[in-house]
Amino acid sequence: MTGGSRQAAVIARQIYMQTPLRRKLGIVASYWLRRQFWAAWQVTYRCNFRCTFCNYWKKERPSDHELTPEQFADGAEKLREIGNMMVSLAGGEPLLRRDLPEIVEALAKYHLPMITTNGWLVTEDLARELWARGLYGVSVSIDFADAERHDRARGVRGAYKRAVRALETFSRTRTQPRQKVNLMAVLRNDNLDEMEKLILLAKKRDAYFMVQPYCSMKTGDESFAPQGHVSKTLIELKKRHKNFLSNTVFLERFDEALNGGVPGCLAGRSFFNIDHRGDIAKCVEDMDNPVGNILTSSTEEILAGLSEAHRRNTCKACWYNCRGEVEVIYNPRGLINFIPTLLNG
Fold first, then answer.
1. Of 194, 241, 292, 323, which is most buried with the most CB atoms under 10 A?
2. Is 254 helix (H, G, I), strand (E, B) or coil?
């Protein structure tokens, strides 16, 4: 092989190593090897909404404690030592970070970054830049198809209008079919009858629909939790609507989650949380008990801490997507349900 050919081969390999396919294959490898393959990273805990079913916005968290894009790049390298990952960027409201495109680009080098947003700050230019920087997917939070009810729940007038517009903007500006746009709904005690309307709202805007049940760990208030049995209704809706993306096995366990909880949480083993300072905990609701830091702890220390946190974990309070959608793919039926999502992304 000539010098020029060798150089071309090296460049081709570098490009391949950074493609979404390569990163996706790395995530599959981590899954089969029973390693962590999902990280939720809270880029900020600041929020411009005042949601009735969340207390995060009530706590003062100054922006000068947040990691810089350069630190996110260092963190992405550290995560790569564990493996390629799905990285969900959330908060708070992640788009309050004006440097979010830089953060997405830093993570996209090795991982598949996604964001969850209330949609308020989305513009066409920002959406295009996020896609161009390597964003893999986005979820826009909408809990009611009725504007007044959504605005009241989110504590901001006009929240619904901005969220729908954000959904439309992300759908219109994506450049690749693999780039996923989701409408994410939190199932509460008063919006089960809204789910089909939201599915249709998403479909009209060429978006998928996903749902997760409310968890009282956010507020300590159990009154928002759905009552009775909801799994049958959700599964029937999934049968009728192809854009309902949530895994069927995940939906089947909603009743169990809402009536005593699902045991066997894999937090720490298959997924974990990183907060705005880089502190690592087994899950987003355990951030007061960090097991390490993405910048200052070694990979060995992080893995040992997560392993011990998982070993001691007996919690069964939540059935969030970051837990349930991950855990059900260790079930044969759940894995079969997941494969089309993987192949189409």
1. 323
2. helix
Question: For residue 294, what are the CA distances in angstroms to 71, 271, 276, 283?
Answer: 9, 14, 11, 14
Angle (deg, nearest 10), helices 69-82 and 100-108: 20
For residue 220, what are the domain limits?
Answer: 18-343
Domain count, the chain: 1
Inter-residue contact 270 to 32 (CB < 8 Å): no
Burial of residue 51 (CB within 10 Å: 0-12, 13-18, 19+) is: buried
- Residue-averaged pLDDT of the chain: 90
Task: Flag whether 281 is in a domain.
Answer: yes
Yes or no: say if 275 and 237 are a contact pair by the CB < 8 Å rule.
no
Give buried/exposed letters for 181-207 (b at 16+ CB in 10 A, else e): bbbbbbbbeebbebbbebbebbbebeb
Report the CATH number at residue 258.
3.20.20.70
pLDDT at 299 over 80: yes
Contact 100, 94 (CB under 8 A): yes
In a domain, 6, yes or no: no
Say whether 125 sits in a helix, a strand or coil. Answer: helix
The DSSP secondary-structure symbol of 178 reads: T
pLDDT band at 5 (very low <50, low <70, confident <90, very high): very low
Cβ proximity of 268 and 307 under 8 Å: yes
189 or 59, greater pLDDT: 189
Give the CA diameter of the chain: 70
